[in-house]
Amino acid sequence: MDEKRSVAFHTLGCKLNFSETSTLSRMLENEGFEKKDFDDKADVYVINTCSVTDNADKECRQLVRRIQRKAPESLVVITGCYAQLKSKEIAEIEGVDLVLGAAEKFNIAQHLKELTKNDSAKICSCDISEVSGFNSSFSINDRTRTFLKVQDGCDYNCSFCTIPLARGKSRSDTITNVVNNVEQLASTGVKEIVLTGVNLGDFGKGTLGNKKHEENFLELVSALESVEGIERYRISSIEPNLLTNEIIELVANSDKFMPHFHIPLQSGSNSILALMRRRYKRELYAERVKLIKTLMPHCAIGVDVIVGFPGETEAHFNETFQFLHDLDISYLHVFTYSERPNTLAVEMKGVVPVNIRHERNKKLRNLSFMKMSEHTRRHIGETRKVLFEANQKSGMMEGYTDNYIKINAPYKTEWVNEIVDWTI
């Protein structure tokens, strides 16, 4: 490049995507690119996509149209899960110049050196079965909490999910490399690291170029306990069948791992769980919650739930609602089922009307509000440690307690990225 070019990023989807976007940004800055805000005019726009729901697909298209209106001469690059799943479809969107699949995402700098504005988009992708490497990623300078990717891909075959098609087989970083990354992050002043992955509890598979578990997640979290400089860790999301008693006990006895779990459930009906091809029943899920709450009564537990899955009758939904109502959990992430091509669920009978899906979503979101309110109420009057973040909104700042209660306070510069004792 003869002159310095500018680049702007936009991320759709999960914490894993945020960690990868941050890494891509650093790679391009090291190549001489100037990073700009997505709302500013830039020479290159990179959209890191998700494809869990139809909304993510639509949002990607809307962002491209926005760039076209604002900066029609700029280059537009699409990467991420949507790019891997539907590369040809994305290439036909007016304004898109480059589509990078899973194997090419981290070669973005080389592709941009050769990219010019043309009438048609260039597609750089491959069969997902050929993707075998692991690219370490973490977010930094973007927010107080840093997302560190330690695992990628998934070997599960849940009937509703496209992620294995978008990210490939389960594969992991090594414990040694994760520890090195954590030490690097500690040297920058990071206080909290969120461990992320597609199937985090499957950590260890695919390390050192093979498909065997040479290491495991319990060994990883045990190793991170002894790294100096990092005060807080969170486990982003872990399957109930992979959340072992030993992991729960380690967190319960740890000063560094926060009393906070996010455990996907998806349905409180064993019949629907079977149709979803999940690897557990509701009874196991309840056992996990019970052990967590026995050892850590103050612990926050978040739950993923899908409503409107094919075959979900009113009785099945009520079963899920009551199961969640009776569980000692803290909040829900509620997803409305949407049909995804190339999944088993899209061929299933018993399609739930969209309006009923939305009604069920609203009922569970209301339940989530009640659960979080109750979780907060239990701890009123307690003094807990809060890590305050840099974002300022109308003179206020926010942070989270160790057990994931959101705190708002008048903005103080000296509190940014500091852990403060706070009476709730």
3D structure, described in words:
It is a single chain. With 424 residues, the protein is an alpha/beta fold. It contains 13 helices and 19 strands. The strands form five sheets. Strands 2-1-3-4-5-6 form a six-stranded parallel sheet, sandwiched between helices. Strands 7-8-11-12 form a four-stranded mixed sheet, sandwiched between helices. Helix 12 (314-326) runs parallel beside helix 13. The chain is globular and about 60 Å long.
Please give the radius of gyration in angstroms: 22 Å
Named CATH architecture of the largest domain? Alpha-Beta Horseshoe
Helical stretch count? 13
- What is the CATH C level class of the largest domain, in words? Alpha Beta
Short précis:
With 424 residues, the protein is an alpha/beta fold. It has 3 domains: 121 residues, Methylthiotransferase, N-terminal domain (Rossmann fold), CATH 3.40.50; 238 residues, pyruvate-formate lyase- activating enzyme, CATH 3.80.30.20; 41 residues. Helix content is 34%, strand content 21%.
Throw out a few tags for this protein.
3 domains; Rossmann fold; alpha/beta; pyruvate-formate lyase- activating enzyme; six-stranded parallel sheet; 424 residues; 19 strands
Topology diagram in text:
Elements: E1 6-11, H1 15-30, E2 34-36, E3 44-49, H2 54-70, E4 75-80, H3 81-85, H4 87-91, E5 98-100, H5 108-113, E6 122-124, E7 137-138, E8 145-149, E9 151-152, H6 163-167, E10 171-172, H7 175-187, E11 192-196, H8 217-225, E12 232-235, H9 245-252, E13 260-266, H10 270-276, H11 282-295, E14 300-307, H12 314-326, E15 331-336, H13 354-378, E16 383-388, E17 396-401, E18 406-410, E19 419-423
Parallel strand pairs: 1-2, 1-3, 3-4, 4-5, 5-6, 8-11, 11-12, 13-14, 14-15
Antiparallel strand pairs: 7-8, 9-10, 16-17, 16-19, 17-18
Helix pairs in contact: 7-8, 9-11, 12-13
